[in-house]
């Protein structure tokens, strides 16, 4: 049996955290948020970084876009650093602690929570700051990274329009279609992004393990392709080194359930990192409060298993089926 301590070995920090303080002022009336209007009809596209303060790859891509002076050829482009307070608290000696300050910024995106001013946290204040801009966005790319070392994932949400957006982008190869987290709504599912009858759409991309050397390159590539897909830039507007080889095909995993911890008494049977597939229904993958957690069907795929944020009510792994289309 593996203990929690054995599962939580710290990954090396292989990339540099950029100084984003020169971009503190913003130009959209919101700190660390920049919007550029081309004056030509087209969509409003947003690239969002630092939904979680220790997920640096998005900050690298967004800062480089700002440093390059990228401007949209059509429509409007918004570039944002989200949870800056958490980012500024990063300590290499405890790198998982700066995911958020008070609560997960990617669990507060419902109108009821944002409108309820009796609720307060660092993350709620930041979401309320950003909300007026987010409300005007047509297509959102939210750049993330993962606790464990795994292949990159495009997280499309549950709707067919989200899957279609991920397939059109063509990278990463694995598309995770899911309902989100019981703990609260994500930015990619907010308002019209999560409405089936709205043309607005969003994609969350998990670029790899938080601090591995390759993660920034994946963030640059998906950002470049997302901007090109919507006509915001052309190939020649970005450095050649931003582009990586496209995968040969996409594979869609439909998440059927989230496994949530009830207490601190949860452990996996071995050190899973993601996309492990179990041929047999009923395979024991974990123990929760002394009870076995089993795969509910054949060929069950584990999506983003991790105990690094273990506490009651947290999703520790999602279970999914590999779809044929």
Description:
With 325 residues, this protein is α/β, with parallel strands linked by helices. It has 2 domains: 9-242, Zn peptidases (Aminopeptidase); 253-322. The chain contains 7 helices and 14 strands. It has helices spanning 4-7, 57-68, 84-88, 111-115, 122-134, 160-169, 215-229, and strands spanning 33-37, 44-49, 76-81, 139-146, 153-155, 174-177, 201-209, 251-260, 266-268, 277-278, 284-288, 291-294, 300-303, 315-322. The strands form 2 sheets. The chain has an 11-stranded mixed β-sheet with strand order 1-3-2-4-7-5-6-8-14-13-10, sandwiched between helices. Helix 2 packs across helix 7 (215-229). The protein is globular and about 60 Å long.
List keywords for this structure.
about 325 residues; alpha/beta; Aminopeptidase; 2 domains; 14 strands; globular
Secondary-structure content class: alpha/beta
| Rough outline | globular
- Total beta strands: 14
| CATH topology grouping of the largest domain | Aminopeptidase
Please give the CATH class of the largest domain: Alpha Beta
Major sheet characteristics: 11 strands, mixed
Order of neighbouring strands in the sheet with most strands? 1-3-2-4-7-5-6-8-14-13-10
Mean of pLDDT: 94
